[in-house]
Amino acid sequence: MSDYQKMWQDLGMDMEQHDMLCQVLPSAVGDVFLSQENRPKSMDFWDLVISEVHGIRPAELIEEQKKGRKVFGTFCVYVPDEVVVAANGIVTGLCGGSQFWVPGGEAVLSKSTCPLIKASVGARLGKTCPFFRIADIYVGETTCDGKKKAYEILGEDVPLYVMDVPQMKRPQDIIKWKDEIATFAKKVEEFTGNKLTVENLNKAIHIINEKRKALARVYNCRKSKCLPISGRDALLMMQISFFDDPERCAKMCNRLADELEERIAKGISVVPEGTKRILVTGTPLAVPNWKLHNIIETSGAAVVCEEMCTGTRYFENLVDETKESLDEQFMALSERYMKTNCACFTPNRGRIDDILRMVEEYQVDGVIDCSLKFCCLYDTEKRAVSQALKAKGVPVLSLETDYTDTDAEQLRTRIGAFIEILNG
């Protein structure tokens, strides 16, 4: 591992606490990923990135800042990356998937706040995440009440912009989101000093569309009965895609997809024939939250799809590249992003339809619907998800967890019993 100590010091990070975090990560990566057999060789890229997740990409971002580029830290798939990229800005995800950061979040938030939010706030206030230190501005959105209040804390010492996501999907809501994107574009222009044009926005739309296509290629390979990649590896690829340069991300995902398609043609699978295929849905799994996938895949099943923001919602649906004015482009962006079926919407039949469709497309044997504790949106939707799946004869297991390992054995017991039922 390269030495990033000076970079972290210059960012004002808490070096002692950060060293403690870094000591835990290598063993977790080894246990969850490197212990697997017959992995695709192309995973070497993501193995390298995760081994230096607080070093490689942060160093790149800092170099780009020296050239005058602005870094936008985002929390949600609703923030339109295309607008930032068009203005020569850089988009990065922000950390929020580790129990390490939760106590820091609980110092200023209610303990009954979901761990994803508490971890994000703790990562910033505890000065142990370089992405939170590097970002010139945070961009939030109104998909969750807990996040909305957390943004008020995060915005105390860093510029913060919040996009108002409609809570319904009527025609007027799509227009409202188009106007919200247009307003955000003005903020991006002001913050970067660069003007959006039809030409640079169209180029940015194309770049992000190509990234989505590359991610979709990998997921399409997971639809095969000959499963060429584990769910753990696919999840790692997806998590890193929120942080990576979009053009490099597309290149590396296409490289991986090439190998996976070749493995399918040769009949090379990562699991024995007959292994039960699981679709996971629910609250997003932010890096380094690998607990659920690891338990499922070390209990004798395989995760073949994630219907969640760190999954299909991130890449499904492309933006129309044929529009000839900024207003038309903003509407095209709105139409694409409003197809994302987050649990914040009411009604939200679209998510149920997506899950049922993916059960067929990915040849799924059973669904695990898992929400983080205190995530009332996804917890409430479990009932509708379960009813719809049972009506179609699809076995479903509903779970609730957090970032600690205290429930790991309980989860393993319940998941193991579910897999036994599938094996019948």
Can you give a write-up of this model?
The protein has one domain: Rossmann fold (3-Layer(aba) Sandwich), CATH 3.40.50. It contains 19 helices and 8 strands. The protein has helices spanning 5-10, 15-34, 44-51, 56-66, 81-86, 102-106, 115-125, 130-134, 145-154, 171-192, 198-221, 231-241, 246-266, 291-297, 312-315, 326-337, 349-361, 376-391, 408-423; strands at residues 71-74, 90-93, 137-141, 160-163, 276-282, 301-307, 366-372, 396-401. The strands form 2 sheets. A 4-stranded parallel beta sheet has the order 2-1-3-4, with helices on both faces. Strands 6-5-7-8 form a 4-stranded parallel beta sheet, with helices on both faces. Strand 3, helix 9 (145-154) and strand 4 (160-163) form a beta-alpha-beta unit.
What's this, in brief?
This protein has 424 residues and is of the alpha/beta class. It has helices at 5-10, 15-34, 44-51, 56-66, 81-86, 102-106, 115-125, 130-134, 145-154, 171-192, 198-221, 231-241, 246-266, 291-297, 312-315, 326-337, 349-361, 376-391, 408-423; strands spanning 71-74, 90-93, 137-141, 160-163, 276-282, 301-307, 366-372, 396-401.
